[in-house]
Amino acid sequence: MLGIVIVDHGSRRTEANQAFLTVVERFAERREHDVVEAAHMELAPPTLADAFERAIARGATRIIVHPYFLFAGRHSTEDIPRLCTEAAAHSGVEWRVTEPLGLSDRILDTVAERIEAAIAAGKATG
């Protein structure tokens, strides 16, 4: 069974962590036959190790890890693979890290929508 772990940076702000968990829950609704787990790289639980453990307990034999970051940086190219290696060390589960979100027309469309909404709102706040 395929396990999918979506990992963000993690935040000291509970609201930010909860918003990310909502993103992962909504994604999981689209992948009803896969095991989907959330993880924060640091600052808050669940950790990548927690997510691997839960995914394996739910039957995952292979795990795809998606860094919920806009672009590749040290976290997605070094830290997350290292944490995955540690998390999978005793399980024998295969894993792979995807590219981060990157540049796409859908992201550009979302940026444009946010800007148009700010323009439509009128007077600036600052």
Protein model, in words:
The structure is a single chain. By secondary structure, this protein is an alpha/beta fold. A 4-stranded parallel β-sheet has the order 2-1-3-4, with helices on both faces. It is elongated and about 55 Å long. It has one domain: 3-Layer(aba) Sandwich (Rossmann fold), CATH 3.40.50.1400. It contains 4 helices and 4 strands.
Tell me, briefly, the overall form. Answer: elongated
The largest beta-sheet arranges its strands as: 2-1-3-4
Question: What is the CATH topology descriptor?
Answer: Rossmann fold
Percent of residues in beta strands: 15-25%
Mean pLDDT across all residues, rounded? Answer: 93
The stretches of 5 or more residues where confidence is low (pLDDT under 50) are none
In CATH terms, what is the architecture?
3-Layer(aba) Sandwich
Range of helix content: 40-55%
Number of helices: 4
CATH class designation: Alpha Beta
Order of helices and strands: EHEHEHEH
Keywords:
single chain; 4 helices; 4-stranded parallel sheet; 126 residues; alpha/beta
